[in-house]
Design goal:
Length: 257
């Protein structure tokens, strides 16, 4: 029976939801109207979700705390400013010249053209003194002569030193291969013949016998020559003059020193 009675009753159970939706719509259009909605809807309107109400209370409490702290800061700043103003007033009163006086203007008279002093005629005594003055000075001439002599002496010493210095001689190191006719050739005699060649700019060095094959050995001898005095062609001509022992001469190595 109770259920049937409630079915026929026209009760709006979800009215608070529509009220909240309407309030949010007007807040989005015209800003928050929480106070007006509370006055219009009465105490029943505050029976909405507890989450929004608690959040609003927390915000109001935090704003009050922040407001109190800001008020304290403002009071401290006002006290500091008042102290500074008082101190500034004391300093201004204690300073003797706190009022700046206007500087007095000075009247400057126009400049007068100054005439140069008249030149006095030279006396005969002064003319004699001017004649005695040597503008160039004999001391400077003596110094110039000494400097020229010193320069010439240094140039002469440098030329002598350069003349005594030995000129750079171009030399070469040559390794010769001297081949005999056969295995019966006396290699000691062949080497003696080669070393018997004496030329200006020729110095013989070490030597050794190198086997060629079939019991034949060749003489490998080293020498140092001055390029301007001794050439390879001259060496070959001098060595091949010993026809009884020498078959041919070859240059195995040639290096500049």
């Amino acid at each position: 029976m109770a259920t049937n009675f409630l079915v026929h009753e026209k009760i709006w159970f979800d009215k608070f939801k529509y009220d909240d939706a309407e309030r949010r719509f007007y807040e989005q259009m015209n800003g928050p109207v929480a106070g007006a909605s509370r006055q219009e809807n009465g105490p029943g309107a505050s029976s909405g979700p507890s989450g929004d109400h608690s959040e609003l209370v927390v915000r109001i409490a935090s704003l009050e705390v922040e407001n109190q702290s800001l008020c304290g800061v403002v009071q401290e700043l006002q006290q500091a400013i008042s102290k500074l103003e008082a101190r500034l007033n004391v300093l201004e009163k204690s300073s003797p010249g706190h009022r700046a006086t206007a500087p007095q203007t000075q009247h400057v008279s126009p400049m007068r053209q100054v005439e140069p002093p008249a030149k006095k005629p030279a006396t005969p005594a002064e003319d004699d003194e001017d004649d005695d003055i040597d503008l160039f000075g004999s001391d400077n001439e003596e110094e110039d002569k000494e400097a020229a002599q010193l320069r010439e002496e240094r140039l002469r010493q440098y030329a002598e030193k350069k003349a005594k210095k030995p000129a750079l001689v171009a030399k070469s190191s040559i390794l010769l291969d001297v081949k005999p006719w056969d295995d019966e050739t006396d290699m000691a005699q062949l080497e003696a013949c080669v070393r018997s060649i004496q030329l200006d700019g020729l110095v013989w060095g070490a030597s050794k016998l190198v086997p060629v094959g079939y019991g034949i050995r060749k003489l490998q001898i080293q020498c140092v020559v001055e390029d301007d005095k001794v050439g390879t062609d001259l060496l070959e001509e001098e060595i091949t003059t010993f026809e009884e022992h020498v078959q041919s001469v070859d240059i195995a190595a040639f290096n500049k020193i």
